[in-house]
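To: structure desk
From: M.T.
Subject: fold request, one chain
Message: Could you run this one when you get a chance? Sequence is below, nothing fancy, just the single chain.
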Amino acid sequence: MGVVVVSGGSTGGPAAAAGGGGGGNGGSAAGSCCDVSLKCWCKWRWGDHQQHLLPHRVFSVFSSGFLFLLGCLIVYGLIGVIYGWLLFNKPYVPNGVVGLNSFGCLEDGEGSWSVGVFYGDSPFSLKPIEAANLWKNESKAWPVANPVVTCASVSDAGFPSNFVADPFLYVQGDTLFLFYETKNPLTMQGDIGVAKSTDKGATWQQLGIALDEDWHLSFPYVFDYHGQVYMIPESSMKGELRLYRALEFPLQWTLEKILIKKPLVDSTIINYEGRYWLFGSDHSGFGTKKNGQLEIWHSSSPLGPWKPHKKNPIYNIDKSMGARNGGRPFVYNGNLYRFGQDCGETYGRRVRAFKVEILSKDAYKEVEVPLGFEEPTKGRNAWNGARHHHLDVQQLSSGEWIGVMDGDRVPSGDPSHRFMVGCASLGAAAAVIIVLGLLLGAVKCLIPLNWCAHYSGKRSDALLVWERSNLFSSRVRRFCSRVNRVPFSIRGKVKYNTWAGRLVLAVLFLVGAALMCTGVKNVYGGNGAEEAYPLNGYYSQFTLLTMTYDARLWNLKMYVKHYSRCSSVKEIVVVWNKGIPPKASDLDSAVPVRIRVEKENSLNNRFKKDEMIKTRGVLELDDDIMMTCDDVERGFNVWRQHPDRIVGFYPRLISGNPLKYRAEKYARSRKGYNMILTGAAFVDGTIAFGRYWGEQAKAGRELVDRYFNCEDVLLNYLYANASSTKTVEYVRPAWAIDTSKFSGAAISKNTQVHYGIRSRCLMRFTQMYGSLSDRKWEFDGRKDGWDL
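Reply: Done. Structure tokens follow.
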């Protein structure tokens, strides 16, 4: 085969080289990008007599590739939309969820910090506030749970905030004042906010912004000296360490003096052995390791003048070693302790505690000691699941220690990281589409033909002369030609009309779909956390209770692993009805699991009184129901608004003459319900268990034992019998899966028999406790989605 020589702008050369066989080879050229010879030349054999067919052929090639790419984009786009709808769609946002409609809590690259309260007998035995089991009817928190101060609670008080961090306590008798950094979403800089509590930190009243300057402020260290209250906020952007004095505590402050003309960050002062010591970090120096530097200054007064320590910088080490301050230094049992930040994995990953062994004008030594803080195990569903970088501890007049710690559920820079990962995934999905097109022959070329060497199309003489004299351009065109030979090599190895080829295509398609879903999740799916919903700015917790037996152990393991990671779950109680129970250690749980072994196999055990349950809210949830933590959290929020009702996810309508038990579809068709199945429902444990085991319910419990069925129906009748108002509330889940269908261990295998027994229960319970058929509540369009 001869070599084609392209000269000038003429197209005659290729036709002459093709000879009389132009018609046959021309058809081949139209159907492929390049005709590759043994010498790997990229050739186009187009005869002069074929010039009139060029527009049609180009249109055919481009139209097939364009339609293929468009079709793939539509298919993958639909996959992404469906995935996003299934994963991120929330049927509704509950009432009482504050902060969501206010200007605040915007996604921020610095994080989503919030503040929690901890109690302990010592600063090294602090437990979160929920462990204290404080109940507050005003905030409908039974018990109160962390976090107690968030961007939502600050924003809804009228002070927009993206996050709150760096908390410091100021104790004034029985009143606690909390000073903290709050990031203003308008100015995108930190201000100093303040809140007040009169109940040991269980609830907080937002007082306002204590200090607002033209530069970023944070780390508001507050202390007393000679009857005055002072504050040293971080003002490193101003380039100096500034001391403020309260004019009218806690909201009015004035600049007292500039302590040190250095951009020190996270500075604290403590009086130790008759001298004042200032700890801070200066990250502005040449060779300084950010978040790994520590300096010490000393003075006879907190007002100065301050002299540098002879060993400064005390540290200039790796940022994970805790050099940067992480809170207020304190004295405990005669020893001085300092908190430092571990910024190794991400900024503010954790707080580390150090015991100071030597502190003098010319020497310093400290050793790390255990902090005694239990790391959260719920991942991003925990408010402090990713990091906590600041802790302030104070001893109350009662002798008890109280601590305030900030926490974040995501690492630093999470929005940017997710966006980059999402874009990379979408780009990879587009690459998979192109590979599919190459394998199927719909995409002919990877690079436009006029970029290739020996392109036979018409180009200007001046351009050709420039290309011949430009070595780089020639090499680029040769490279493009080689790239365009890749599709032929791939199609030669993978035959799409064989089983192996079809398998390769199927795998590629699934990989592309997975990449599309990953991209959608990272770009549009938020931080991936299924957060708890606050009610009027406060959080609480509930106990999850399930009843099972040995044949459903695999259900239980999956159940515990999933639901224990839900934010508001405090404890899981397993009512074990039959068989040898597992050990709690056999279950992968992020919360305590208590297995309550029953003496007899009875469905009444589900509602047995249990004095060990420490929460008011109890979620009765069958071990074969799987739903999202977000659905569970929404249901819990609705129950907190209506704690006197059965709040659940499976509605039923009891009506007709004679009474007949029917599925949810019947309630939907009648657009109303009067019963909630307790296989997935929140109840007030004290009320529900008390009613169920009362003397009035004895005949009903006997019927449940006789039929081994209907315990949930009985509880609904008992609630209705006790009140003339609404006693049930429906919450629509985004989705729910019955896992017993996959195991064959379903309790009610024969639906008709099961419904028949329940119909008999309805008639008997109606005789005992009155009718439900005269009650009916319509589905709430906002909650249910039917009338939207």
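Reply (cont.): The chain has 18 helices and 36 strands. Let me know if you need anything else for the meeting.
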